[in-house]
Amino acid sequence: MKKYLRIIFLLPIFLYVFAIGIVDADSPEVHVLDVDGTIVPVIADYIDRGITKAEKEGAAVVVIKLKTPGGMLTTTEDIVDRILESRVPVVVYVDRWAGSAGTFITMASHIAAMAPASRIGAASPISGSGEELSETLQDKLKEDTAANIRSLADLRGRNQKAAEATVVNALSFTDQEALGLAPIPESHREVLGIEDPILDPPLVDLGAEDIEDLLEKIDGLQVEINEEVITIHTKGYTIHETKMNWIERFIHAISDPNIAYILLSIGSLGILIELYSPGTIIPGVAGAISLLMAFYSLSVLNAHWAGVILILLAFALFVAELFTTSFGVLTAGGIASLIVGSLILFSGGSSMENMGVDWWVIAIVVTCVVLFFVFVIQAIVRVQRRKQPTGSDGLIGMVAQVKTPLNPRGTVFVHGELWDATIDEGQANPQEEVRVTKVNGLKLRVTKKHNGGD
Length: 454
Prior knowledge:
The chain has 16 helices and 17 strands. It is an alpha/beta fold and 454 residues long. The chain has three domains: 224 residues, 2-enoyl-CoA Hydratase, Chain A, domain 1 (Alpha-Beta Complex); 130 residues, no CATH class; 63 residues, CATH 2.40.50.140. Strands 1, 2, 3, 4, 5, 7, 8 and 11 form an eight-stranded mixed β-sheet that branches. Strands 13-14-15-17-16 form a five-stranded mixed β-barrel.
């Protein structure tokens, strides 16, 4: 009887667990990636890792939650290529801002969605430091990027004119304008050459309050992947968030022009301090680590190496000033070299956003470096240049211990040696302390400590 009661008691539990297993097995998986910040190579690696994971686990859809001011052109192209090659539907959800490079990523997605009060556009390519490109290079880049975004818009059935205008004319659109739910400004209509104030077809596919609302709206939508029409099923979904790991977050943090510039400056200072004062260890170690991180960031950001050389030359000129009487000429040259190097550091390539060093960062770093060399390094050099007493002269002022009575002659022990000594006044008994006042060949002149020797 007890056996049957036990079975009756456990049966509901088994049925419940079995039912949960069936629900979980049938529950579509939605993988969510969170991209917040500048588009740099580590972001491309993160998106590639997220999409690959979704493909392996048979996810129903990948949602890229996007908030970016833009980023590097080559990295943007890598991300676009990965989305186009994806074997699972990719949905880009614009959370607040898809500026510049973010516009291309959004256009490449199978479904483009925007959050309330978000914006998209301003995708014109510029130089890495934000300066105007040469006319020929500017025309080439605009033509190429315009053709690229037109092809993406055409592939996804979106408004080609509006997409192209984000590149050629740097236009931006609100979520309502991009969705074709609100009229675009008259200036935009003139640029696009249209009379209808509503974008038709729209620039993006749908609007959503949040991720949950988005997944409800895309349920049942069809997309084409590798020439095959796939229906998206998100009913009863299970969300799997693929976050950036700590290495990716760290690399993303240092992949910033301002951070790379500061690391380069700190690293150079640390190495110089260690060279001036060997054995301090901490400045040298910190400087070496900072330089390694700086060089990594500079290589990732396609820094102009002429700028790096000019910055290092500036530190060399500051050092030379400490050992050469140039009446400030070398210091002035160092300041000029540091400023020019800072300005051209990220002017070697094109991007979808201003990737240069902020002027106020340059001003702070230059000021701090100059003050450092004026006050700190000069103090270190003065100490190192100060002549240290050596040989017999180094004994003057030292305290000696009497070994045999000084009356007035005897012996004393000082600096690890026995010396013949003469006391200048009175006498001193063994174990008393006297101070050396003069050295005459191999003989010392001493005085009692209480006689002005203290």
